């Protein structure tokens, strides 16, 4: 039987500026977003293999009681300083040039997976937020209850999101204002002095049985006159880190995922391990490295403390500079960085 030629098209938000010269938009193959040029769909057989394979670090993981430190309080919400505050997993409060952002909010338990560390303050206190940045629609980054909570407390909030995420947002609340972007596109909702760009990541999408790769994924650049901040979202190691640096120059702050990387046969095309995260950070010519996507939820086979131990070992070897491992709720003041 003759194979059917796949239907290929490229899409972007035609109303937004595309900063990569000649870029036609994100590639869709038969209606599914490609991971760059190639379609990537995780193989369910690997999930089954994971469930049937004994974790070689099982006993070590059982003994590992590591939980990220927690600094309680909400003073950071009233400060005027430029800062980054980790809220656990991939959720950050960011203030740059007086504009406030939240990234990938997840404040509660996941289905079958409890949150292991608290928040610095109750979610209802997260007020005066200007923009919500959503890197992709996996449930540990695009959490319905958390997004609803944030919007209820911040009725003037605007969402900066990937292509084809609008239906999900309207299901949460039809009044949520949002703007979708493809890779290499600049959102146009920002006030003067702050720019936000949606950039590539090597990942995938799925929330239900029938929506594989129907919503785009990516990373973010937040840029002011003084600071370029990179939020990596979820990503495997790929050439896009080097390309981002070629477009923007060195990153002052890199928020990098370092957890949920074992077993490699399941995770290596979705997530960075600590060594890969440092390699990506070096490709970005990063200044300050702040880790995320570890310690908050148990999603994989590595022991809870392993990502932090590996990062500290790598930093001690001199391969990277600028490692900061803040507590949940601890402000990292950007004017004080080297």
Automatic annotation (TrEMBL):
Every Metallo-beta-lactamase domain range: 101-294
One CC-aspect GO term: cytoplasm
Pfam family, one: Lactamase_B_2
Name listed for the protein in its UniProt record: Metallo-beta-lactamase domain-containing protein
């Amino acid at each position: 039987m003759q194979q059917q030629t796949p239907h290929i098209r490229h899409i972007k938000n035609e109303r937004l500026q595309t900063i990569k010269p000649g870029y036609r938009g994100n590639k869709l193959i038969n209606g599914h977003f490609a991971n760059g040029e190639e379609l990537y769909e995780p193989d369910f057989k690997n999930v089954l293999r994971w469930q049937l394979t004994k974790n070689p670090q099982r006993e070590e993981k059982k003994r590992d009681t590591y939980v990220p430190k927690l600094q309680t309080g909400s003073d950071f919400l009233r400060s005027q300083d430029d800062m980054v505050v980790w809220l656990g997993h991939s959720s950050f409060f960011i203030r740059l040039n007086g504009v406030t952002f939240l990234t990938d909010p997840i404040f509660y338990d996941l289905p079958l997976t409890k949150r292991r560390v608290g928040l610095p303050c109750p979610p209802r206190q997260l007020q005066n937020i200007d923009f919500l940045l959503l890197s992709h629609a996996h449930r540990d980054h695009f959490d319905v209850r958390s997004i609803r909570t944030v919007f209820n407390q911040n009725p003037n909030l605007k969402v900066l999101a990937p292509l084809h995420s609008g239906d999900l947002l309207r299901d949460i609340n039809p009044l949520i204002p949002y703007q979708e972007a493809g890779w290499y596109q600049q959102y146009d909702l920002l006030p003067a002095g702050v720019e936000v760009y949606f950039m590539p990541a090597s990942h995938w999408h799925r929330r239900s049985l029938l929506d594989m790769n129907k919503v785009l994924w990516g990373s973010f650049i937040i840029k002011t006159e003084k600071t370029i901040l990179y939020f990596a979202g979820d990503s495997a190691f790929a050439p896009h880190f080097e390309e981002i640096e070629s477009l923007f120059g060195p990153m002052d702050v890199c928020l990098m995922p370092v957890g949920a990387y074992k077993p490699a046969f399941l995770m290596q095309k979705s997530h960075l391990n600590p060594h890969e995260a440092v390699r990506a950070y070096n490709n970005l010519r990063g200044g300050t490295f702040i880790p995320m996507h570890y310690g908050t939820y148990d999603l994989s086979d590595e022991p809870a403390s392993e990502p932090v131990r590996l990062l500290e070992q790598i930093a001690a070897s001199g391969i990277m500079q600028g490692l900061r491992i803040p507590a949940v709720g601890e402000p990292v003041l950007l004017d004080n960085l080297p």
